[in-house]
């Protein structure tokens, strides 16, 4: 067993071989992972917001879907991944609170998931699996050696995607 590498909120990291990336408490945030199955290289970002373009204080690139995924891509390539082999998995993007208004600004989880998918599509990185939406939090683990993602939810158990 390799090292367990924790990814905090608005944070990202990469791993190789037997290492495992993990992030806790994905609510409306989206956990985005990129994996190269041949090089056994993986990356994970804990994305809080869909776009850095609408926020003035946007110096933390890992916080936003548009900048985090680009930075994550750069880091996995530096670690030996090949762009043509990359696949992605997503989890999170929940609607954690119910609002009576139909205001889209409150649908941050859904907006995070949509933004993440759009960026991965633009970068031509296929999404091989996802566990998004709902109204519950998730903790995820990505195994760099296999690309297996475990999605753990309180009261709902653990599933493998």
From TrEMBL:
Its EC number is 3.5.1.44. It catalyses: L-glutaminyl-[protein] + H2O = L-glutamyl-[protein] + NH4(+). It holds the Pfam family CheD. GO terms for biological process: chemotaxis. GO terms for molecular function: protein-glutamine glutaminase activity. CDD domains: CheD. SUPFAM superfamilies: CNF1/YfiH-like putative cysteine hydrolases (SSF64438). Gene3D superfamilies: 3.30.1330.200. The keyword Hydrolase applies. The keyword Hydrolase applies. Keywords: Chemotaxis, Hydrolase. Probably deamidates glutamine residues to glutamate on methyl-accepting chemotaxis receptors (MCPs), playing an important role in chemotaxis. Belongs to the CheD family. This is Probable chemoreceptor glutamine deamidase CheD. It comes from Marinisporobacter balticus. The gene is cheD.
